Recover the amino acids of this structure.
């Protein structure tokens, strides 16, 4: 749908997993992120692993969920739809999810969250009863006790690359479309 507007000027997509050859896209491998984070929890001994997402209808989140499911299947663990939590954005959301888990799903022993603030909120409620890994490697990971593991995304580099591409496209006749996928790092704490 958005491709139709490309003839009117520059369009750049950031972290859109539905890539097109007509629009530059700067993104992460969301499937692999979900799989890696889930496998980290499994390697830590977790067998009842949950996932927290922000918007379950977002394609990037769907890919993370697919990676999560693939890791569970690879390790012969059962996928439980009740272990999928959404609308998780803030520390308060994490605390709400933590209380829900404590009440409804006490067997959950590992949780992958879409951001570190949700992890911190869950940790505040569940303390050391679960192993957590978040996403984005925010500084909050360093001040929680225990410190939180996270998937580090090179957002600053991606932002710089997008800015440079916009400037180049605006200042020159170069209208080349780019498809730049960025690596991520597993930060274990």
């Amino acid at each position: 749908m958005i491709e139709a507007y490309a003839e009117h000027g520059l369009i750049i997509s950031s972290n859109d997993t539905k890539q097109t050859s007509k629009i530059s896209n700067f993104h992460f491998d969301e499937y692999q992120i979900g799989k890696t984070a889930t496998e980290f929890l499994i390697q830590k001994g977790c067998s009842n692993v949950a996932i927290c997402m922000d918007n379950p209808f977002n394609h990037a989140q769907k890919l993370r969920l697919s990676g999560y499911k693939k890791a569970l299947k690879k390790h012969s663990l059962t996928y439980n739809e009740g272990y999928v939590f959404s609308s998780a954005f803030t520390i308060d959301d994490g605390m709400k999810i933590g209380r829900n888990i404590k009440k409804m799903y006490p067997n959950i022993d590992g949780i992958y969250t879409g951001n570190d603030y949700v992890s911190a909120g869950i940790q505040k409620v569940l303390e050391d009863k679960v192993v957590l890994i978040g996403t984005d490697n925010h500084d909050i990971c360093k001040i929680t006790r225990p410190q939180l593991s996270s998937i580090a995304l090179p957002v600053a580099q991606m932002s710089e690359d997008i800015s440079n591409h916009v400037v180049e496209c605006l200042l020159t006749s170069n209208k080349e479309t780019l498809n730049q996928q960025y690596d991520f790092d597993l930060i274990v704490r």
Q: What stands out?
A: Residues 2-28+154-187 form one domain. The chain has two domains: 2-28+154-187, 32-152. The first helix runs from residue 30 to 43. The radius of gyration is 18 Å.
